[in-house]
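<derive_structure_tokens>
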Amino acid sequence: MRYMVLGAGQQGRAIAFDLLRDENAEVVLADADPDALEDVYSWLDDPRVDLEPIDAENRDEVRAALDDIDVAISALPYRFNLAITEDAIVTGTHMVDLGGNNDVVEAQFQFDTAAREAGVLVVPDCGLAPGLANYLAADASERLSRIDQLRIRVGGLPQRPQGELEYMLTFNVEGLLNEYSEPCLIVRDRDTVYVEPLTEVERVTFPDPWGELEAFHTSGGLSTLPRSIGHKVENMDYKTLRYPGHAEKVRALYDQGLFSREARETSKGPVVPRELLAKIFEDDCTYPEADVVLLRVYAVGSKHNVPLMARLQIVDRFDKENGITAMMRMTGYPTSILAQMIARGSITERGVQPGERVIPMDQFRTELKARDIHIEEVVKVLEA
């Protein structure tokens, strides 16, 4: 099987690493930065890896590169994904991406008919959240015939927090700022509505040593769930987990307009607040520390008029042996698993599809377990 990984950042690195577990896999790693390509190539140290220095802005280059690829995996910023979707359909290449933006994903669904006619499957939003968390949420919903509450709580955290924000960057800073500043889609009393980010802070407790954390609205997490399971859910939301106090501090920055992309005039000349904020996050939230990813899906409802609760939970830590962060594992590995299922024919649907609709969960759980990612599951009857 021949795969193309577009993007040689942390997630692209993890995806390529996981794909190469399959002895039949060949991986083409594509990026505009030749130094990034060489760095990942040296780290992977595998003759089955080819490098493709291409500019994702150049549609002709992308289409030429996709021509002999079975599955393309976009680990690029979400702004590229719509064009790559079109290019993959033209070249007859299956495609999955890490997504992260509701508007882009909605635009991708407009190519459903074209993808079906081309015999291609496109699956947006395939990383951690959206991605893995959504598959587990849909799986939890299968245990219930009616769902009153479906809550998804996910966070990537330093195991030993430092600094004023007690946070460590584990993925692209622009992706983080988007999550913190864009409207957040939720389902409330069966209506799909948007709420402000960094609001409705609640306390969530995880097993020691994590203890009490906070959760608050961020954008993008629900992704396609309202489309795929919204018909059976009264209330559904996604919130990000952080150490207590983080949301209040970041919200103060938000309220001061520091997430704005509009330039402001200062005595030193024009300044774009968001660019300055990105630099501050990069400087203050980048330090050498092992990370952890915490994920919990909690569903309350009923089946055959019996009140039930279903909870699925994952705690995943930094892989010291391979130098792979928990965020890379939990984002890159689910994406790689999905791409391999498509390439091997385990998934036969075509068109533009939500991952939770097409992924075979029993097989997916087995694949996660083989990568030492374990789902803790509790389903119990609730007292009336």
Observations:
- Residues 2 and 26 are 5 Å apart (CA to CA).
- The chain has two domains: 2-124, 132-327+374-381.
- The domain at 2-124 is CATH 3.40.50.720 (Rossmann fold).
- The chain has a mean pLDDT of 95.
